[in-house]
Write a structure and sequence with these properties.
Elements (H helix, E strand, L loop, with lengths): L4 E4 L10 E4 L5 E4 L12 H9 L7 H5 L5 E6 L11 H10 L7 E6 L8 H8 L2 H5 L1 E3 L7 E6 L5 E5 H4 L3 E7 L2 E2 L3 E2 L13 H8 L14 H13 L3 E7 L5 E7 L3 H13 L1 E2 L5 E7 L11 H4 L3 E10 L38 E5 L16 E3 L2 H11 L5 E5 L6 E2 H4 L3
Parallel strand pairs: 3-19, 4-5, 4-9, 5-6, 9-12, 14-20, 15-16, 15-19, 16-17, 17-18
Antiparallel strand pairs: 1-2, 7-8, 10-11, 12-13
Helix pairs in contact: 1-3
Length: 411
């Protein structure tokens, strides 16, 4: 028997309160979970063990010896990483290497995203960090150090606070990404703490990009070259489960440790696909403020003429993006264009977006003609009008970080 009611995770960063979805009796609902959905949280002792056995690098403690200033780069609120789970071990290693608290600062790797405030820093880092350490937003327009150009012609301009430090550490997560193959690694520096000119040039590199694609992905290779130029010393990159907890950790060299992490990430986030579903549902969790990322896996399921449904549960709406965001009726950032992600011609009949918190501006990310409703009940009414009584439904509960088994096999 298939369930009439299902519970999905929702409201990342805002209580992580699940939502109940009810379905008609005749519908066959397939909940397609990634392999690492229920993976256990990594204990603090294991996090410390990973730090003390890095990949392709000296330990963080050894790197800290003789250093005066360390900047910890951490990913922003568009990423589900619970950075606070990793920080006790990271700070302990830095202290044991001889760096005092007043020599450590934090910079949020927001790239071209909008700035954040104290409540966000607390959610990411824990309450004590902003009380004890300087925590900065990144500004992609000012206070940048010019390091020259990569071999791909990308100007490498990096946050001055980062470059003024003699030890640079990035703490983030390895998650599937439509442009860089997977997040984490060098992406923490470019675009994370890079200038807008750097971001624009790098993002215009298209060769080899795509979810799961790392080998031959020139955009990522360009970012890795920039990270070498900037002297990014050490990465701490997590894999996450459906509760956003750290389940594994890959530490060390910005390229070598990331490549090892990607090997496991391909299996961890891999999800079997339901073929030719009448309705394919992508839950934006755990990156609901970039919920359009659910598209990559959900679009693989929907049959021609079927319906694609996005579930977007966040009070934030879509994040601010100074590169490809919209800042006027018919203009936006340097990378903006209409129908940014979900474009015609669609193979599906409709795109329905369920979001209790509506903002007209956000519609552009989901395509002209997308239908927006405030509740699943409203969406269900629309779906029942045109869907057969024995509809096949594919539901991807953490779609924004799930990757199809086909894509996970990409080089």
């Amino acid at each position: 028997m298939f369930p009439k009611k299902m519970k999905i995770p929702a409201y990342d960063w805002y209580g992580d309160t699940p939502i109940d979805l009810e379905f008609p009796d005749g519908w066959v609902v397939h909940e397609q979970r990634m392999e690492g959905h229920d993976a256990g949280r990594l204990a603090q002792s294991k996090i410390l063990e990973r730090l003390q056995h890095p990949i392709g690098s000296l330990t963080l403690r050894e790197l800290a010896k003789g250093k005066r200033r360390c900047t910890i780069i951490f990913d922003d609120m568009t990423r589900p990483t619970k950075t606070w789970q990793m920080l006790p071990a990271v700070l302990d290693e830095l202290h044991r290497g001889g760096i005092a608290d007043d020599g450590i600062s934090f910079v949020m790797a927001s790239g071209a995203h909008g700035a954040r405030m104290l409540p966000d820093f607390i959610k990411k880092l824990g309450e004590e960090i902003p009380e004890k350490f300087l925590v900065f937003n990144h500004n992609p327009y000012e206070n940048l150090t010019d390091l020259g150009e990569t071999s791909h012609g990308t100007p490498v301009k990096v946050n001055r606070e980062v470059m003024d430090s003699d030890l640079k550490v990035a703490v983030g997560a390895i998650i599937p990404h439509m442009g860089f193959g997977f997040g984490g690694g060098a992406k923490m520096l470019l675009p994370g703490v890079a200038g807008m000119d750097s971001i624009c040039h790098n993002h215009n590199i298209r060769e080899g990009v795509g979810p799961g694609r790392v080998s031959g992905n020139l955009r990522r290779l360009d970012a890795e070259e920039a990270s070498r130029m900037a002297g990014l010393d050490f990465i701490v990159n997590a894999l996450l489960n459906a509760d956003r907890d750290v389940t594994d950790l890959f530490c060390g060299d910005v390229v070598e440790a990331h490549r090892e992490g990607v090997k496991k990430a391909r299996r961890h986030y891999a999800t079997p696909i339901v073929e030719d579903a009448d309705i394919s549902m992508g839950n934006g969790y755990p990156m609901a403020n970039e919920g359009y990322k659910a598209y990559d896996i959900a679009i693989e399921s929907v049959r021609k003429g079927g319906d694609l449904v996005f579930l977007i549960y966040t009070p934030e709406g879509c994040r601010v993006h100074y590169y490809n965001g919209r800042f006027g009726t018919d203009f936006g950032g340097r990378g903006w264009r209409p129908d940014v992600y979900v474009r015609k011609p669609w193979k599906m009949s409709r795109v329905i977006v369920v979001s209790p918190h509506l903002m007209k501006l956000d519609e552009g990310y989901y395509g002209e003609g997308s239908i927006w409703v405030k509740s699943w009940k409203e969406a269900l009414r629309l779906l029942e009008e045109t869907t057969r009584h024995d509809a096949e439904v594919a539901l991807y509960p953490c779609a924004s970080m799930q990757i199809s088994e086909r894509s996970s096999a990409a080089p």
